[in-house]
Amino acid sequence: MTDRFIAAMAEALEKDAGTMQMSDRFKEYAEWDSLAVLSVMAVVEESFGVVLSRHDLDESVTLADLFGRVSSRSG
Amino acid sequence: MAHLTFDGVRVSGVSACVPIGVQRNADLTDLIPPSEIARTIENIGIVERRIAAPDVSASDLCETAASRLLEMTDVDRDSIDVLIFMSQLPDYPVPATSPSLQHRLGLPESCACFDISLGCSGYIYALATAFAYASLPAVRRVLVLDGETFSKVVSPKDKVNAPLYGDAGTATLVEKGGGGRSWFGLHSNGSGLDKIRIRAGGARLRASIETVQSREREEGNVRSEHELYMDGMEVFNFTMKVVPQSVLALLKYAGLQLADVDYLVFHQANKFMTDFFAKKLKCPKEKIPYSLGRFGNTSSASIPLTITTELRDALGERKRLLMSGFGAGLSWGTALMDVSDCSIPPLAER
Description:
The complex is a heterodimer. By secondary structure, chain A is mainly alpha-helical. Chain A is built from four helices and no strands. Chain A has helices at residues 2-13, 34-48, 54-59, 63-73. By secondary structure, chain B is α/β, with parallel strands linked by helices. The longest helix of chain B is centred in the C-terminal third of the chain and has 23 residues, at 232-254. Chain B contains eight helices and 15 strands. The A-B interface holds A 33-35, 37-39, 41-42, 45-46, 51-54, 57 and B 36, 39-40, 43, 159-160, 219, 231-234, 236-237, 240-241, 272-273, 276, 279-280.
């Protein structure tokens, strides 16, 4: 499931999935801005059926943190 | 309550008026770095917007739209029994704006006038109210005037909101007879009060030297307390949860499916959001008209504006429309109805 998550994030951020790791501090990506946030929300909803909130994003530092929030609520 | 059913009431005309003034998003290079402008425009889908002159209000735009519609339909103005003005920016805090529109449009004193204030769900709510009145024996016609001038309350230094909002005024004629059956779904969630808000100028925070100061806020946006704040992320979070399911719930209530709908007219928030809904609902793109590119997010006026600019040639014969509005409150509304022989004048400008 982490591969699927990385692929989803790569699609949302228009990045190469091969350059991304779960330990990445995603808010430090050059691609991270307010539009990227909406893309990530859309892709996570489409792929995992989970709607991320501001709280989820504020409390997450790494991709692994974000994945933890998604996987715990994913059907 | 949530869902309503009406019989024998129809929309017989829709018209719109936009300001002459144009602001192009590509020109916002002082606000958004040139390297990011193209991506922003593509993402939100807004190339340009219409901006009202300082002396033109939403009621003025609605007045022009209404005049054109009344001329085209040649209805007897004395037969208009109710006038509803839907806007978040009335001409004055007091009095309500609708009586002055009754006067300006030469409507009779027997016309009941009142204002409604809601966000981007406002047109659906106003239309449902009009349908309810038009269902009463004594009511022949209802005029719904829905207009917004958010350009007057959005900070030009707000990167989130400045590229989004445009101005427009619209008029919709609702009358008894024909139309078949119509359905509405109306919902609210006031826990989202602070997600889209202008804090000052109402009862909670009166205007003061402090409230009118422009201050730097989150992410470098600059605005005063009299200018619109929107939490884009939380609003997207909200709409993702309620919009697609409210469309499906209304269709189910009506015993219909998306395949039975000819056009799905969304509130024109931004293209990224509505593309998401279309994908979620598996709705073909040909069924979803957009006025967003040329006029931006015109708040509650966006649905009737889109009908005027994009469906003018399509509504001569019978078509089934599903409309979905969602926004400040938080509030959302969905409407499903057949429209035929609908009078739509060319888009007016003022």
